[in-house]
Specification:
about 100 residues
Length: about 100
């Protein structure tokens, strides 16, 4: 039969073992969380330049697209002006021809 001091000693060792196991488990969990958080940090930090490159490429694409659309629109307007000028000059030539025939 155990004495009271021996029972207290066993209880202390059981409690300290349980506390140690719990602490070890919690620290392992915290270490895992910290590792994952660190990896997330690394991934995010390495993702930022990629995201900036993608954003810059998209901005360049849309800028070139809008420039191209502006050139197309300007070309269409120039064609319309040229057609109007041709029609006006043909009408003026016709009017001159008719006037010369009358004289």
């Amino acid at each position: 039969k155990l004495t009271a001091a021996q029972e207290v000693g066993q209880l202390k060792s059981a409690v300290s073992g349980a506390v140690h196991d719990w602490y070890k488990h919690k620290m392992r969990a915290l270490h895992t969380v910290a590792s994952v958080a660190y990896l997330d940090y690394i991934v995010i930090i390495s993702y930022i330049p990629f995201a900036l490159r993608v954003q810059t490429a998209a901005e360049n694409f849309y800028a070139k697209r809008s420039e191209r659309l502006a050139r197309i629109k300007a070309g269409e307007e120039a064609k319309k002006k040229l057609e109007k000028y041709k029609a006006d000059s043909e009408a003026a030539e016709e009017a001159n021809r008719i006037r010369l025939e009358k004289e």
